[in-house]
């Protein structure tokens, strides 16, 4: 049976309500205490509606996170990895946007809850890495590869290590709240990852 | 009333049993589901014995983590931050030991559970940072300060940023399990933090 336009609209609305409810709730109660029942109640749908589309709360949250990441794109916070030819400027642009996103209250609580859940649940962590994290890391790697090809990076640069040198300190400061997460921090990090901290002796 | 030697020994044994039970349990069930009752049962003591010494499960776990860190020292995994004059070698030595510790099953599950709990509970996170994390970061900063004074680092090097450039990627890879956490990774990280990834043009 083909859906009527009205039914399709209702379906989209329910789907959206479920994803929103899942994100809000995981930020409020954490991953462990989240239930399909609570998501259904918050979204104003029956439990069976959720189970028709998703087999588990992990699956709901994965789609919710993907939708949230997609929204950030649409809102112009992310319009593809820039390539102006100036690697430092491009990395600063993206890391500043990441700082803004991590500090955005809509994003922060669910992102913390899911990171914490993945850290203690290897299977969940692996699913999130595969669907959500690795595609993002691949965009950084592609930009760094172009820079390496253009002779801007040492020819033996380990691209994956470089990506983790950028995202590792950012994630560390965000997750552990050791110091304020600012644009100035993002800028300094990019400069030091590219240039190093050791004194270069000019002969 | 002064304790007799026997009473003091019993006291020490109970204390040790409680801290061990707390670490084992938090690794098994996570921070949220951990209770003083469960710790008491596992340690074979009464609840009141725990409450005599600690006001909350967070306080028990903080002392348990400090005791675990102290043990690692005693076992020679950590004998103070080395200063051989060779900064790269000293940093690699410490980061390799940190890799070993993070991959040690005795340490890994409780450390993950507590990091996850601190990430979603700002008050708990702040207490752990103050008592456990910041004293460790201060040791890195002190070693880097000596290197800066010796002219081995750029004079304007931000010591705190440099510490987070070392520990951030390590913690990221450990917590998110993006790639294997190895000594080779620790070595490459130290080399790149010191030297940067940008191509240095020799005129």
UniProtKB/TrEMBL annotation, chains A, B:
Keywords: DNA-binding, Transcription, Transcription regulation. Pfam families: TetR_C_11, TetR_N. Residues 12-72 form the HTH tetR-type domain. Coiled coil: none annotated. Residues 35-54 bind DNA. SUPFAM superfamilies: Homeodomain-like, Tetracyclin repressor-like, C-terminal domain. It comes from the Bacteria. InterPro entries: Homeodomain-like_sf, HTH-type_TetR-like_transc_reg, HTH_TetR, Tet_transcr_reg_TetR-rel_C_sf, TetR_C. One of its GO terms (molecular function) is DNA-binding transcription factor activity. This is TetR family transcriptional regulator.
């Amino acid at each position: 049976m083909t859906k009527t336009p009205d039914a399709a609209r209702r379906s989209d609305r329910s789907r959206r309500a479920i994803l929103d409810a899942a994100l809000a709730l995981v930020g409020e109660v954490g991953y462990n205490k989240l239930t399909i029942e609570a998501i259904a109640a918050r979204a104003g749908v029956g439990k069976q509606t959720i189970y028709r589309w998703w087999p588990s709360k992990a699956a709901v949250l994965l789609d919710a996170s993907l939708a949230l990441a997609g929204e950030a794109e649409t809102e112009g916070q992310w319009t593809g990895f820039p390539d102006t030819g100036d690697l430092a400027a491009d990395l600063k642009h993206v890391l500043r946007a990441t700082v803004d996103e991590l500090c955005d209250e809509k994003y922060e609580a669910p992102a913390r809850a899911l990171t914490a859940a993945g850290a203690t649940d290897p299977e969940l962590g692996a699913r999130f890495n595969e669907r959500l994290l690795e595609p993002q890391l691949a965009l950084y790697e592609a930009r760094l590869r172009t820079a390496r090809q253009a002779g801007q990076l040492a020819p033996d640069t380990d691209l994956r290590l470089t990506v983790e040198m950028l995202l590792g300190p950012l994630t560390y400061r965000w997750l552990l709240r050791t110091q304020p997460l600012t644009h100035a921090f993002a800028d300094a990090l990019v400069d030091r990852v590219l240039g190093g901290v050791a004194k270069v002796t000019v002969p």
